[in-house]
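Q: Convert this sequence to structure tokens.
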Amino acid sequence: MNNSTFVYATYIATTPEKLWQALTNGEFTKNYWFGRDLKSEWKEGSEVTFMDEEGKVTDKGVVLKSEPYTLLSYTFQWVDDTTINENPSIVTFELRELDSTVKLTLKHENLPSTAFLDESEGFYGINNGWPAILSNLKSLLETGRTLPAIHI
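A:
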């Protein structure tokens, strides 16, 4: 089975420290990740859980790399995914400081190519979800507000 990769980069007028905090603080993630609260110790090998507004775990993973202010990588699995995936998808955030801006590059890899056929969970969801999440993050860090409610 071929696996696919989704890559998205954005430039945010912030510091690596503030961006790192935004990526790893569950109370902050709720603001830009459509109510999702990310919980983890953010140490290599620690569990990552994504909880919705009702406290239900929707996604999970394990931290692969955690280099504060530069790199964060974890496995990512939808809880409702009933397939056993020996090669889970991996989400990586790379932060690169450029004067008063940080280039944030997201890479979501090991996506099964068959997932790209399903409009709800595959490429359609990933292609619309990540840009919306990262646009919300950028807006929140730069203006203190997220974008108006959008439906992806």
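Residues 71 and 94 are 5 Å apart (CA to CA).
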